[in-house]
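Appendix B. Raw example, untouched.
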Amino acid sequence: MGDFSSAGWANIHYANSLPHTIGSVTIGQNNYKRALLAGSPNVADGTLLYGLELLGQDGPWDNPENFKKYNSALRYSRGDNASGYSVTGMAYHAEWDSTDQIPQRAVYSGQIDRFGAIDPSDGGNTSRYSLSYEQHQDFGGGRAMVDAYAIYSKLNLWSNFTYFLDDQINGDQFEQAEKRTILGAHPRMEFYNKLAGMDTLFKVGLQVRRDDIDPVGLYHTVDRDRIGTTREDKVVETSVGIYGEETLQVTQKFRAVLGLRGDQYYFDVTSNIPQNSGNVNDSIVSPKLSFIFGPWSKTEYFINYGNGFHSNDAR
């Protein structure tokens, strides 16, 4: 684990198939509507998994939320746990109007009720599209795996927390905007051996990722129209990480894990404010050590030592 490892870590595996085709339609109060369809037919000696969700609602607000979302996934997989591959495409889009927080004095004075809004143009829209590839292959004494992915995401968020405190003519609404393209790959291998009679598992891997963000910006807006630029940046961040990990099964109830990871980062920022532009690179080595005892009564106990890091905002 590298960047953000001190904050948390997750390893998520998606299903390749469903036991049955499913479909549902739900209607509820506040104009709530949801439709879902998913299935996984067999296609050309593989499995084609699909899922589509459409959702909309207004919420209890005087200014309707007008929330609309679609969420979809399409995956083709072939093979088994020993040897196989999958290709996955995913798409998500949502848009909404938001009431944000409101002044208590406006509610007490009767100007609005507690479900009201001061600036009805607050809200946002966001989307995310991804394409990924995974392949795995067992061989004598080990396993080889590779993941590769491409992601495009976009966010526009309009907020107004102070209304007319700073600009008594146009108001204080601002927009946060970002467009990001991500490319990455993670090839890795596992080797199963014995050392002094102990079962061992050695892992080695390479992680490469490039984030191209153009732009990431903060703008002064009126009814979602831009009237000024507070800051606008183009950011390129590239990272390369290599790691090795050795697991020793010392006894049936005790194992030790020793790891070492090295990361190299490259940052390049081009800003509308010249003094905020520049580039820099840095590297870090992170050792890891864990002792795991158990399980006893379905519980394991850990003693961990290690270094992690947070790459922070390139700007």
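End of appendix B.
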